[in-house]
Design a protein that fits this description.
This protein has 9 helices and 10 strands. The protein is of the alpha/beta class. Strand 4 and strand 5 form a beta hairpin. Helix 7 (170-182) packs parallel to helix 8 (201-207). The longest helix has 17 residues, at 63-79.
Length: 251
Amino acid sequence: MSTPPIPAALIEILRQARHIAVLTGAGISAESGIPTFRAALTGLWSQYRPEELATPAAFRANPALVWQWYSGLRATMRAAQPNPAHYALAAMQRHAPKVTLLTQNIDGLHQRAGSPDVVELHGNIHHMKCSAEHEPVEAWAEGSEEPPPCPRCGAHIRPDIVWFGERLPDAALDRANEAVRTCDVFFSIGTSGEVEPAASFAPRAMGHGATVVVINLDVTTSEARWLYRFHAQAGQLLPELVRAAWPEAAA
């Protein structure tokens, strides 16, 4: 796929930006071979609906089933590698004055690419917490078919991620709202823009005067005064964008 041309006006906007906010979704991880949640419901798992695997009620009803599903998904995510888009965003964080990196992904690939500060809106599949106390659990038996017990209270542990029907972590949401309010440029990368509250981030940022950049295979490339839309793979476009705005990033 050819990369759309990058307008010179956008490069200058990025060079002048004091605060860039970035929201990433499943599309950026798909370029590393990680399927979206629903796309991963294949084979033995094709008989299940997301609500049977990704809700607190599902975990209470059948903890072993949910634990085994997420153990397999965690192994898939652990085997995946960051792609050029992840590395480009890490370079942006090093060279721009301020970058707030928000992600809906739970795979930890941004951190593995070198991003020093990632706001994980939906948690991290590689972290665990107690299902009763919701406190972090640092160590657990990785290969078990049943969720291991919490070392403090004995309740099942579970992935420290946000399931359907659960609230986003307050601290992460506070940082996201602050970034939306104060950024000069807002990137929306590989996200459908359908799940709230993240779906409203880009429109709200634009309402506060930010330039919005959308990179997604589900959009048509176009540019307006405050909105740039790129029908492109993030792994192709972002490295070019970062090199153009911050030539020292290529050194």
